[in-house]
Amino acid sequence: MNEEVNFFNKNGYLVLEHFFPKQAIALVLKEAKSVFLRQFIEKKYIMPCALEDLDDAQFNNFLYRLFEEDLECLTNCGKQVQHLISLHTLSLDAKIVDLLQRMGLKSPIVSTRPVLYFNHPKLAKQKVFHTVDAHQDWRSMQGSLNAVVIWIPLVDINKALGALEILPQSHLDGLRTDHIENGFGMVALTDEEKENLIAVELNAGDALLFSSFLIHQSGDNITDMPRWSCHFRYNDLEEETFIQRKFAHPYLYKPMEELITKDFPTINDLSKIYS
User: What Pfam families does its record include (predicted)?
Assistant: First the structure.
C-alpha cells in the first residue's frame, strides 16, 4: 500500500481495478434505468415490461425520445436517480472507508451526496451537460486540502465512450480555477498540458481515485450510448486547515416553496393510499 500512497501523492490519482463487485455496480445501473423505464411505460412508449425485456438500443432510443418530448420528466428522473439506496450504499462501502483512511484521510466524511451521470450529446442542451472541459473539483467542494473524489464507471468506458481525461501531477499546482461554469471550477490549459492529458479507460467494477485538485475533463462520447458513471466526494475532518476554516461547506439544499402540482394532493388521492 505504501507504493500506492506514494504514487497517489506524486501523481494525484490511482486506478483501482476490480475494486467493486460487478453485481454491486450492475444493481446501481439497473435501479437507475428502472426509474426511466417507469416513465417510458407511463407515457406508453412501451407496454409494461421488465428492464431485461429491452436491449440497450431500445432503452437509449426511449431515453433520447423522452429528452426531446418531455425534458421536465427526464430531468426529474435524473434527480431521482441521485437518491437511489443502492447508490448511497455503494458510497458508504467499508472498502471505500478503508481506502480513504489508508490514503491519509484520518477521519473521512462525505463532502456532498453521491452524483450519478448519464451523459450523451443527445441528452443535453449545452455542451457542459455532456462534456465538461478541464476543471478542478475542489473549487466546488472547498473542503479539506486532502479531499478526494472516487469516479466509478457503471459500464465499461473506453475513449470512444468519453473516458475521463486527467492531467497527472496537476494537483501540485494548487487551485487554478479561473471561473465557475454550472458548478464546475474551470481551468485554462496550456497547449503542452493538453498534450499531456491521459484518458483513463475503466471497466465496470473499477474505480478512479483522485485528488480534488487534480485537473481533469470529460472525453468526447462519439458512440450512440450514454456514458453511465457516478462519483463520490470525501473530506477529512482532521485536516488542519479544514478545522481552521470552520469546516467550510458551500452546498445549499432547500425545498421549493411553491407547489409543483397545483391542487395536489386531494383527500381522494390520499384515501387510495391509506384505505
Answer: PhyH
